[in-house]
Write a structure and sequence with these properties.
- This protein is 80% helix and 0% strand.
- By secondary structure, the protein is mostly helical.
- It has one domain.
- The longest helix has 38 residues, at 169-206.
- It is globular.
- The protein starts with a helix and ends with a helix.
Length: 210
């Protein structure tokens, strides 16, 4: 594996864990499943992660076809994705609800059977930010199979950790507390902001800007 591929692997894993934010899913998943039994909560979490993974895979598979159909250039989407990620990072730093991962406090009327789909799978796990990041990373691979595998591995690992965190949410909350979750979320926000700026720079360079 070359140094470039190792660097890409680090970017893919860091971006996947940052945008999915497994620790940040703990209080949100607990909030929307507060009225469910432990068994129901586990089933909801399982279904949400599977649905989110399917959405990410479908978008990754159809991303290039969507670009071709809409006439969107790769540099344009890279820049747009970077801007979107930066906005999400700012919201993470200031603990504000975002369009990609919105606060679900007002969703008490959602039936438990649908909680796994909305808001857990969409938009909390596989939101616009997650989809945009996957497509941007795919564009950076230029067909390299090892880098494509790194994207798959990174998002699979992030989804698995998110599943573990949501399944063990109550225990983790007691262990690190709400303050600990806020600290980690803000740290991930700083990392995501830096990656977002790099995406914009990559897009500008690919578009021919100096």
């Amino acid at each position: 594996m070359t140094d470039q591929q190792l660097h890409f692997a680090a970017t893919a894993f860091t971006t996947a864990f940052t945008i999915i934010d497994p620790l940040g899913m703990i209080p949100l998943s607990l909030a929307v499943t507060a009225r469910n039994t432990p068994a129901e909560r586990r089933a909801i979490v399982d279904r949400a992660v599977v649905i989110a993974g399917a959405i990410i895979f479908v978008m990754a598979s159809a991303g290039r076809a969507i670009f071709d159909y809409l006439g969107v250039t790769l540099p344009a989407f890279t820049i747009a994705g970077g801007i979107l990620l930066f906005l999400i990072a700012v919201d993470m730093l200031f603990a504000r609800p975002t369009g990609a991962k919105q606060d679900v406090g007002g969703e008490a009327g959602i039936e438990p059977a649908h909680v796994a789909v909305f808001p857990l799978a969409i938009p909390m796990i596989a939101g616009p930010g997650t989809i945009a990041t996957v497509l941007v990373l795919l564009n950076l691979t230029h067909g390299d199979m090892i880098e494509l595998a790194m994207i798959f591995a990174g998002y699979t690992a992030a989804l698995f950790v998110a599943w573990l965190c949501m399944r063990a949410g109550t225990i983790i909350l007691l262990a690190i507390g709400t303050t600990g979750i806020h600290v980690v979320t803000r740290l991930l926000g700083v990392i995501l902001a830096a990656l977002a700026v790099q995406f914009v720079l990559n897009g500008l360079r690919a578009a021919g800007f100096p």
